[in-house]
């Protein structure tokens, strides 16, 4: 592992927290769907009964808190795992783990709108190599722009960052 200085000024690790987007991993077909809306339980009774098809387990109360907050991020905007975690009084890894298991994407829970604290795409659906192309395509379809390394364009970082969570 070695450190690389990105144009954003952030020092990133080649292997670890931020990784290079390897075009060799690009899937032949890119899923850029940002319109499909899935069933989302809203009552206590519905939530207690809903079984996540990704895990075959019920969704936890913490996961619902993460999903409810994530649902507030408007199209064309993003937040970071840290901003979301701070709003919930939790940690970024716990938020990331909840989003990795999100069965309600792309809507009503748009987990593709959550990025790393240095404005890098981060993982998507538990994957850091091929599905990252899906995440970027979804965000680009909603109006965000990225540099070749997967970082939000400098001019959009402040204007498109959402942090006004109501929890």
Output the keywords:
two-stranded antiparallel ribbon; Arc Repressor Mutant, subunit A; 167 residues; 6 strands; globular; alpha+beta
The global form is globular
**In angstroms, what separates the terminal alpha carbons?**
39 Å
Strand content: 5-15%
Counting helices, strands and paired strands, the structural category is alpha+beta
Identify the strand order in the major beta sheet.
1-2
Return residue spans where pLDDT drops below 50 for at least 5 consecutive residues: 7-16
Radius of gyration: 16 Å
- Average pLDDT, rounded to a whole number, is 89
The CATH superfamily title: Winged helix-like DNA-binding domain superfamily/Winged helix DNA-binding domain
Topology-level CATH name: Arc Repressor Mutant, subunit A
What does this structure look like?
- 26% of the residues lie in helices and 8% in strands.
- The protein is an alpha+beta fold.
- It has a single domain, classed as Winged helix-like DNA-binding domain superfamily/Winged helix DNA-binding domain (Arc Repressor Mutant, subunit A, Orthogonal Bundle).
- Strand 1 and strand 2 (11-13) form a beta hairpin.
- The radius of gyration is 16 Å and the shape is globular.
Short description:
The protein is 26% helix and 8% strand. The chain is an alpha+beta fold and 167 residues long.
Secondary-structure blueprint of this entry?
Blueprint: E1 3-5, E2 11-13, H1 44-49, E3 51-52, E4 57-58, H2 61-70, E5 79-80, H3 81-88, H4 92-100, E6 114-115, H5 132-141
Parallel strand pairs: 5-6
Antiparallel strand pairs: 1-2, 3-4
Helix pairs in contact: 2-3, 3-4
